[in-house]
Amino acid sequence: MSILVWIIFGALAGWIASSLMGSAGGLLWDIVLGIIGAGLGGLVMSLLGQSGVTGFNLYSIVVAVIGAIILIAISRAFRKSGHSA
User: What is the rounded (10 degree) CA torsion for 50, 42, 27, 23?
Assistant: First the structure.
């Protein structure tokens, strides 16, 4: 996929994940979250024996959203553990 498509893909996946998780960070955060989430979701899916991101399609958006949700959850866990110490 081209860089522009990755940005659009990342923005869409990041926005969906942020909306589902009640996280707010703006457009740039959603783009970064979606792109990194696509990589993380692809890794998780490959560990489960499935394919990762395969292009700009519904399956790939779901994979990226799953990865972005995992990333948000990890981020929240680190923020909570940092405040308790």
Answer: 80
